[in-house]
Amino acid sequence: MQISDIDFDENSFDLETTLSKFQASESQKIILLEIMALIYADNILRDAEQKVLDTMLKKFGINQSMALVYGEWSKSMMALCIQGEALIRL
Q1: pTM of the prediction?
Q2: What is the DSSP secondary structure assignment for residue 10, as one 8-state letter?
């Protein structure tokens, strides 16, 4: 994402600990949808991204069928954003 104005220590970051902070089901789903939007923004699902998704799904108790629906919704929203940008340029 090329974000340079934040401090982030990759060695001390723990995804499981971070995910544990989201207790409410609605919050978990929002985080999942946001992460999916970031992951699918370039239309490439990398191995590391798949690992993050798998960890989130397991931690939040979301099955693969629901994950598929969330993923397709995220892709649809990304497509709408691209279409909106194109409409502005017309």
Answers
A1: 0.78
A2: T
56 CB burial (10 A radius; 0-12, 13-18, 19+): buried
* 72 vs 69: CA distance, rounded Å: 5
Radius of gyration of the chain (CA): 15
pLDDT, tens digit, 9 for 90 and up, residues 9-50: 788 888 999 899 999 999 999 999 999 999 988 888 899 999
In this structure, what token pair is assigned to residue 62? 């979301």
Query: Strand, helix or coil at 29?
Result: helix
Q: Under a CB-based contact definition with an 8 Å cutoff, are residues 67 and 57 in contact?
A: yes
Give the domain ranges of the chain: 24-89
